[in-house]
Design the sequence.
C-alpha cells in the first residue's frame, strides 16, 4: 500500500498551509499515510433530519435562521448567545462560549445548518455544544419581517414562506468525528481527509488476496473510503472490521515469527539435575500447591528443550510464583549456569534477595545483590565475581543489564513484575547471555486476548490456587468523611496485635490537587489517631537506607502501622498485617489497587481492605472501586482493567511504543484476534520463510519502514 507518494507531506494538500501542517503534526499527522489512517473517534449519522421541536429524540440536524443576538455575563466572561429558529417556527438559543467571532460570522438574518444536542435550561431550549455552518443566505428580511432582539424567554417568528431553508446535499450523510487539537476544527479535518482520499486513496492491498476472499473482507481502498466517507453505518462497520483484521494479522505474524526464530536456535543441553530442587523441597515447612508443581514441570520441560525458553508465569498476588522461580533457578545452577532475577524496585529486589538468602544459601548457592545504589567499592568486586562465575544467583534492579555487567554463563533470566519494564529493557537483559532462557512473572494476570498480542510468542503457565490457610480479604468502600469508622476498626486490629497499612496518592502537599498526602497524614495518624502505636513513613523520595530500615522494623513488628505511597504496591510481605486502607482510591489504577490489597491476607488471620473514595469520583473511578468490591479474582480484575485502561499500560508495552493499534481493540475484538492468529499460523506453517507467492507480500509489508508497519511493528 505505502508507495513513495503516500509519504508526501500533508502540506501537499490544498488548504493545508504551514499553520495547519504544524497543528496536524501535534496529532502525529505528517504525511499522506498518516492522514489516511487517522481513525475517527466517532461518527455522526446526519442522514436523519431532525427539527428543533424533536430535540428530545436526538441531535437536531436542520437549517436555521439567526433572528437575534444576545450577550450575557460581564467583562471577560461576556458570552454571545445566538437566537435561531427553523422553518417550523421552533426556536432555540445557542451559547457561543469562547466564540465571540460568531457575532460577525452569523449576523441576524443569516442562514446556517445546525447540528447538536439541545436541552431545556432556565426556561429556554438551548445548547452550548453544537456545530453551525453558514448556508447561502437570501436577502435579510425587511419591514415587519425583521425580528427584534428577543427577550428571555425568547419568542420566534415563522420563517417567511417564500424563503424555504432546503437541506444541503453534504449534510445528509455519515460524518466522521476526529480527535482534535487547538486550531483544528472538524470541518478542516473532514475537508483534508476527503482530499486525501481523492488524491491518494487508490491503494493496493496489504492483506493477501486469498485471505481477503476467505474472510469476505473489502479492499483496502474501499475500507479507507468507508472509514472517512461512509455511505452508511454498515459500510463504516465493514471498513473498521477490515482495518482491524489487518492490524491483528500482521501483529500475529510478527509475534509468531519471533517464536519460530527462537526455536531455530539450537542448544546442547544435558539432563536436568534435580538435587538442589529436592534439597529446597526438603527444607520447606509446607508442600507446594498442585499449580506450583504443574508450572515448575512446564518450566523444567522448557529448560530441557533444544531451544531457549520464553515463558510467562502468571498468577494472583501471593500465589507463590517466587518459589517456583527459585526452583527453576536451582535447576540451572545445578548444571553450572548463572541466574539473574530482576525486579522493578529496589524494595522488591531486596525482599527477593533476603528470601533467597534464607532458602538457598543453606544449599550452597552463592548469592549477590546489585542495584544502582550499590557503591563503587562494593560494585567492582561483585562485577568481577559475576564475570568469573563465582556468583550463582544475582538479584537486583535494572542495574543487572548495565553496560559494565558481564556474566560468565548466564543461563536463566527471571523478570518479576514484567509489566513494569519496557520491552527493550527486558531484551537488554536477555542479550547479556548467549540465548539464555527467559522466565517472566506477573502478579497482574494477563487476559487471553492480551496474552495473544503482547505475549503471543511466549508459553504461559498459570497458578490459580492459593497456599492453604489463606482467607479471602474482605473489601469495604467508605466515602471520604467517614474515615473515623475505618480508623476505629483499624484501632481494634492494632489492639489485637495486628498491623496496618495506610496508602495515599501523594508524598506531600500539592497546590494543584486537593488530596491527602502521606507526610501530613503520617503526622496526624501518629500524633492524633493512633497515639500509643508506633508507626512509620515510607515513600520514593526517602533515602534507600531509610526505606530499608523502616520496612525492616515494620516486618519485625516494631512498627504497628505504615503510612506510604504506592511504593508498597509490590514486594512487601508481612503476614501479621491485616488492614489495608487506601485513601483517594479513585486515584489509583485497578491493577494497583489489587496489588495493594494483596499486601494483606498473607497470614492465617482474617484481613480487610478499605477503599476510601472522594466526592469527585468519576465514572472510571467508580468502575474501579466497584470492581474491587465485587471480586477478589485477579483474572476477573485483569479483564476489567483491560477494558478500562487498554492494553499498553497493563503490559508495560506502552514504554516501548507497542500495541499502538488504531482500529483493533484486544479487549473487544477477541474473536477477530483468534481468526487473525489462525490465518497467521496457517500461513507460516505453509511458508515459514515467507518466500512463497503469498508470503512475499507479507514479507514486503513487514520489511517496509512505513508508518503503518511501524504502528503495528511496535509490538515487536
Sequence:
Amino acid at each position: 500500500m505505502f508507495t513513495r507518494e503516500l509519504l508526501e507531506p500533508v502540506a501537499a494538500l490544498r488548504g493545508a498551509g504551514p499553520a495547519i501542517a504544524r497543528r496536524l503534526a501535534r496529532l502525529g499527522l505528517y504525511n499522506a499515510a498518516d492522514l489516511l489512517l487517522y481513525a475517527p473517534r466517532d461518527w455522526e449519522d446526519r442522514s436523519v433530519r431532525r427539527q428543533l421541536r424533536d430535540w428530545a429524540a436526538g441531535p437536531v440536524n436542520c437549517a436555521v435562521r439567526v433572528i437575534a443576538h444576545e450577550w450575557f455575563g460581564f467583562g471577560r466572561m461576556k458570552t454571545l448567545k445566538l437566537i435561531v429558529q427553523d422553518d417550523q417556527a421552533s426556536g432555540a438559543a445557542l451559547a457561543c462560549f469562547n466564540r465571540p467571532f460568531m457575532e460577525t460570522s452569523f449576523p441576524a438574518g443569516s442562514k446556517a445548518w445546525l447540528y447538536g444536542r439541545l436541552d431545556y435550561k432556565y426556561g429556554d431550549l438551548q445548547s452550548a455544544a453544537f456545530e453551525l455552518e453558514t448556508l447561502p443566505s437570501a436577502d435579510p428580511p425587511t419591514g415587519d419581517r425583521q425580528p427584534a432582539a428577543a427577550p428571555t424567554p425568547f419568542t420566534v417568528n415563522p420563517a417567511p414562506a417564500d424563503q424555504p431553508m432546503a437541506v444541503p446535499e453534504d449534510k445528509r450523510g455519515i460524518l466522521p468525528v476526529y480527535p482534535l487539537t487547538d486550531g483544528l476544527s472538524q470541518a478542516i479535518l473532514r475537508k483534508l481527509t476527503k482530499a486525501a482520499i481523492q488524491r491518494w486513496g487508490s491503494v493496493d492491498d496489504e492483506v493477501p488476496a486469498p485471505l481477503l476472499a476467505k474472510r469476505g473482507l473489502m479492499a483496502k481502498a474501499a475500507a479507507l473510503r468507508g472509514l472517512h466517507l461512509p455511505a452508511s453505518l454498515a459500510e463504516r462497520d465493514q471498513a473498521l472490521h477490515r482495518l482491524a483484521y489487518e492490524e491483528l494479522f500482521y501483529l500475529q505474524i510478527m509475534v509468531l515469527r519471533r517464536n519460530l526464530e527462537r526455536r531455530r536456535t539450537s542448544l546442547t543441553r544435558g539432563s536436568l539435575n534435580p538435587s538442589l530442587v529436592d534439597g529446597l523441597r526438603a527444607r520447606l515447612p509446607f508442600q507446594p500447591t498442585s499449580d506450583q508443581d504443574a508450572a515448575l514441570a512446564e518450566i523444567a520441560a522448557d529448560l530441557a528443550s533444544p531451544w531457549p525458553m520464553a515463558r510467562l508465569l502468571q498468577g494472583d498476588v501471593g500465589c507463590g510464583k517466587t518459589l517456583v522461580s527459585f526452583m527453576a533457578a536451582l535447576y540451572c545452577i545445578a548444571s553450572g549456569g548463572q541466574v539473574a532475577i530482576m525486579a522493578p524496585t529496589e524494595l522488591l529486589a531486596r525482599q527477593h534477595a533476603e528470601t533467597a538468602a534464607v532458602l538457598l544459601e543453606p544449599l550452597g548457592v552463592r548469592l549477590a545483590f546489585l542495584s544502582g545504589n550499590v557503591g563503587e567499592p562494593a560494585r567492582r568486586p561483585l562485577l568481577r565475581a559475576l564475570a568469573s562465575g563465582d556468583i550463582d544467583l544475582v538479584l537486583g534492579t535494572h542495574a543487572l543489564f548495565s553496560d559494565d555487567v558481564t556474566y560468565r554463563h548466564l543461563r536463566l533470566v527471571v523478570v518479576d513484575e514484567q509489566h513494569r519494564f519496557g520491552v527493550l529493557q527486558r531484551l537488554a537483559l536477555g542479550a547479556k547471555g548467549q540465548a539464555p532462557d527467559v522466565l517472566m512473572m506477573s502478579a497482574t494476570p494477563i487476559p487471553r486476548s492480551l496474552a495473544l498480542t503482547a505475549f503471543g510468542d511466549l508459553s504461559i503457565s498459570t497458578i490459580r490456587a492459593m497456599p492453604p490457610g489463606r482467607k479471602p480479604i474482605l473489601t469495604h468502600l467508605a466515602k471520604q468523611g467517614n474515615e473515623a469508622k475505618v480508623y476505629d476498626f483499624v484501632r481494634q486490629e492494632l489492639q489485637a496485635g495486628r498491623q496496618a497499612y495506610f496508602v495515599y496518592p501523594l508524598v506531600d502537599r500539592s497546590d494543584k490537587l486537593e488530596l491527602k498526602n502521606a507526610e501530613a497524614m503520617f503526622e496526624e495518624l501518629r500524633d492524633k489517631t493512633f497515639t500509643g502505636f508506633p508507626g512509620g513513613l515510607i515513600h520514593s523520595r526517602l533515602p534507600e537506607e531509610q526505606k530499608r530500615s523502616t520496612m525492616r522494623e515494620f516486618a519485625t513488628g516494631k512498627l504497628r502501622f505504615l503510612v506510604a505511597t504506592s511504593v508498597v504496591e509490590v514486594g512487601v510481605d508481612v503476614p501479621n498485617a491485616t488492614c489495608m486502607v487506601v485513601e483517594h482510591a479513585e486515584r489509583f489504577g485497578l491493577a494497583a489497587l489489587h496489588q495493594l490489597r494483596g499486601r494483606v491476607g498473607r497470614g492465617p488471620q482474617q484481613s480487610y481492605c478499605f477503599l476510601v473514595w472522594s466526592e469527585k469520583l468519576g465514572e472510571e473511578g467508580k468502575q474501579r472501586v466497584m470492581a474491587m468490591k465485587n471480586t477478589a479474582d485477579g483474572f476477573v480484575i485483569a479483564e476489567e482493567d483491560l477494558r478500562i485502561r487498554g492494553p499498553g499500560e497493563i503490559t508495560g508495552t506502552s514504554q516501548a511504543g507497542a500495541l499502538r493499534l488504531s482500529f483493533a481493540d484486544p479487549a473487544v475484538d477477541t474473536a477477530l484476534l483468534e481468526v487473525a492468529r489462525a490465518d497467521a499460523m496457517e500461513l507460516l506453517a505453509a511458508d515459514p520463510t515467507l518466500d512463497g507467492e503469498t508470503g512475499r507480500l507479507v514479507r514486503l509489508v513487514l520489511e517496509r519502514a512505513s508508518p503503518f508497519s511501524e504502528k503495528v511493528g511496535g509490538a515487536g
Observations:
- The longest strand covers residues 60-72.
- The chain has a mean pLDDT of 85.
- Residues 233-263 form the longest helix (31 residues).
